[in-house]
Amino acid sequence: MIHVTKAYLPNVDKYKSYVDRIFQSGFITNRGELLQELEEKLKLFFGVKHLILVANGTLALQISYRALGLKGEVITSPFSFVATANSIKWENLDLVFADIDKNTFNINPDIINSKITSKTSAIVPVHVYGNPCDIDTIQKIADDYNLKVIYDAAHAFGVNYRGKSILQYGDISTLSFHATKLFHTIEGGAIITNNDDIARKVRLLINFGISGPLTIESIGINAKMNEFEAAMGLCVLDDIEDIMQNRSQIWERYVDKLSSHVTFQEWNVNSNNNYAYAPVVFESEDELLRVEQKLNKMSVFPRRYFYPSLDTLTYLQNGESNDIARDVASRVMCLPQYAGLFTEQQDEIIQAIVNTL
Ligand SMILES: *Cc1c(COP(=O)(O)O)cnc(C)c1O
Q1: Closest atom, ligand 1, to C-alpha of 58
Q2: How far is the CA of 178 from the centre of ligand 1 (A)?
């Protein structure tokens, strides 16, 4: 069976040597040695000032809203993984969707503008499939209306924009290190900011609000990453260049062989692709379903990321329809894309798609 992705497993002996270190120290969680080592390495890798490791990418979003003291309405994209919208709703904020651009699949700044009211406190754009949003325009809107920007950068590990990490932009960027992501720590995530005050608040919030052995300073929750997860991150980080290189070849092959049959996402010209996903758009949902059926028969299981459009979910709905997101969601499918997918397997997938169309 071939799925849309496969969790990357590093060299097992390397992982075991980290596990030995954990057993020797006896320190298995609570800001241990390996977590600190991973934080330092990732900070250097991205060239960012603060990077705080957390238990997962969903808590990274929720804690970011708390750290920035968001209130009222928050504008986000209906074309994302459900955690983006759920995290806003979970924090009792009013969720407002702004439709996407039909070529980049990212939130459309003109539509953000039209959704701003006196109650708006923030924008949560998503770099969909790792493709950088229209960062300059979004920042201008945020400055004009005094709004916070939290980028859900769950897909954007290793993406640079105008020569620096995409994570440098906005008040906060968040990452997910779930097993299915390009870089992972089994479960995990990170909060990235250049602001000292925000970083301090985040560190309090992820650890029950505890600031010292005898001091509890504020409300907080438990969103800590443990040492076994940090060990996985250290192993995967060593291999990340190879992982991305392998994925880039898979990506190039899809583009090369499928460009005349399907549409690809329009990538931001000021940045690099990280090959986290291989989304293709079909002419119609019917066409997509026929391809999916054909692939399933071969035991190949691509995923309809992101279907359905989040503005169709009854518990998130406010009666407005985001027509472009709904249209793209009905026709887009992510093809198998992971380090270790063999060329012969990929060619069979490509051939099946071409034959069906
Ligand atoms: C994966 C993902 C998340 C959630 O991350 P978890 O680590 O699984 O909690 C949030 N937003 C987007 C866009 C994602 O793809």
Answers
A1: 9
A2: 7
